């Protein structure tokens, strides 16, 4: 409690009170130092902008591959019957694939070489005898269905074996979830062919004639429609794009990466003897802390403003989806201020405890990467193992990201994200407490 009193009520002490003239002079000094540090400014502004553009471009390509672009699929049809061709056409109608039907004259084609030559991610081999198998299987099922259920099951004909299985080759770059989606689509196409053959055989066995096409379509293709509605607090049905996901996340990353510049500046002040000279003057080191909080807090606000403007204005010009700003601009402003304030205090804390600029830069960069990883910036929180999901609570980037996502993705307002802001403020307070303990221990205040 004494540390908190020193922090908030230090101005009551006559010898170390907060003088606005001293604070103004300190702010001007920090601004000059910052403007002279061209490498630091480059890391603070240009690198985050480049990072946001590159990551958003990569993520947008993935989004388009899943949502718009078609996956290249090489089909090698060994079957000479009509159902092999029907399966190929059924796969084409799914709309997920760009089919390349290969020559069927070769018995043992070099599938990997063909996939490489034709730039195909997936290849499918339809075995010889596929049509015969499906027709025999349908006839077998129809005969079983029309037999007396009370009859001895041992008299039923055995199921028809498949001469060879469907073989799906895939490029190793495909992730497991994406590969499972492709496999599920192929299985759906096979199920349609099998269902169509079974319905035909059942109808012919009962009515002694072929099934009418309109009835066949009504039985097989009259599916209940599914409406996809993104969750939104505002009721909007706009589907979030890659910019909505990535720009807020990597803006936070840029804010916290200010530890490279600010942490190093704190270390330089300690090692250069500036703090010793400050102690000989009627001024407290809290002036320097307040000055750095103000100056670098404004830098984080400027970082966010520049990146958001680029996402909103520049992204459409370079072929990236536009960043739609939240309707609650006040909420966006408050989240940005609190996030930047937390980032600045974390950088000061690292600088206070580091002995050299190398220690500050190395630990600061690695720790921000770790906080980003467990905070959900690198991997979505729902995809993390259960033991890592419990660690989300300690990362300030997690609470800041959740607050941003509540505004950008869910269309929420400030009242919907206030718990995230409070959690971020609590973590910021703990960081300040650790910083003040270090300052006390080093006799800097």
Structural class: mainly alpha
Mean pLDDT score, rounded? 79
Distance between the termini: 16 Å
Strand order of the largest sheet: 2-1-3-4
Strand residue content: under 5%
How would you describe this structure to a colleague?
This protein is mostly helical and 445 residues long. It folds into 2 domains: 2-63 and 237-441, no CATH class; 70-221, 3-Layer(aba) Sandwich (abc type-2 transporter like fold). It has 17 helices and 4 strands. The chain has a 4-stranded mixed β-sheet with strand order 2-1-3-4, with helices on both faces. Strand 1, helix 4 (82-94) and strand 2 form a beta-alpha-beta unit. Helix 4 packs across helix 7, helix 10 runs parallel beside helix 13 and helix 13 packs parallel to helix 17 (418-441).
Could you list some keywords that capture this structure?
4 strands, elongated, 445 residues
Layout of secondary structure:
Layout: H1 2-9, H2 20-36, H3 38-67, E1 71-77, H4 82-94, E2 97-101, H5 111-117, E3 122-126, H6 130-146, E4 167-170, H7 176-207, H8 213-221, H9 242-256, H10 259-272, H11 274-279, H12 285-314, H13 329-353, H14 357-375, H15 386-389, H16 396-408, H17 418-441
Parallel strand pairs: 1-2, 1-3
Antiparallel strand pairs: 3-4
Helix pairs in contact: 2-12, 3-9, 3-12, 4-7, 6-7, 9-12, 9-16, 10-13, 10-14, 12-13, 13-14, 13-16, 13-17, 14-16, 16-17
Quick description:
The chain is mostly helical and 445 residues long. It has 17 helices and four strands. The protein has helices spanning 2-9, 20-36, 38-67, 82-94, 111-117, 130-146, 176-207, 213-221, 242-256, 259-272, 274-279, 285-314, 329-353, 357-375, 386-389, 396-408, 418-441; strands at 71-77, 97-101, 122-126, 167-170.
